[in-house]
Amino acid sequence: MKTLKIAIVGATGMVGRKMLEILEERKINAEFVPFASARSAGKEIIICGKPIQVLELNAENIGKVKCDYALFSAGGSVSKMFAPIFAENGTVVIDNSSAFRMEKNVPLIVPEVNAEEIKKHKNIIANPNCSTIQVVVPLKALDDKFKIKRIVYTTYQAVSGAGQQGHDDLEAGMNGLAPNKFPYPIYNNVIPHIDEFLDNGFTKEEEKMVNETRKILNRPDLQICATCVRVPVFN
Q1: Is 161 exposed, middle or buried (0-12, 13-18, 19+ CB in 10 A)?
Q2: For 1-19, how does the pLDDT look when each residue is reduced to its tens digit (9 = 90+)?
Q3: Among residues 163, 8, 135, 153, which one has the least CA distance to residue 70?
Q4: pTM score, two decimals?
């Protein structure tokens, strides 16, 4: 039986490390290939007890390695640039950024809700926003039974959602230091500002929850309003 080869793109980041931890916990029988920026290339990370060298994310290395799957968590701009290169090489990309979520030909998947859509992929599958993933599971059951008329979302999201810099800001605030990532101190505070503000007064995070829910539930006209708040909790 062939051993799968799985690339982890953004392997040295907070989410990439968590992906590797979970793959290890679940005893996935695969060869893991960590990719990261030139800054992290050449470093060794421990995967399943073995030191493995991090490869620089570039077209040459992608072509050499030939993976079956690539799990992406390195930000939208990196996904836009490199996910299509993996896909052209026959690798199935599962992308954790917002880069492809609203692309018409890219399925946006929560397996408990719309697993059948996976069959439509063209080597790129999008993973929804973390908050959207959680809520669409019960919403799908309610929509099937009662046909939902309107959804009003409020989320309270930990600083880990802003990556290592968000984590560092909360830690700094606990020690009386000023923030670097957030526009205001997050320690002992809540900030209703996740991602960028749009012209309509909502943030990108709020817009993502609206649009992704509609796509996953296949309800393009469903009325939805979202408020997303960053809170002083690490994880």
Answers
A1: buried
A2: 678 999 999 999 889 999 9
A3: 8
A4: 0.89
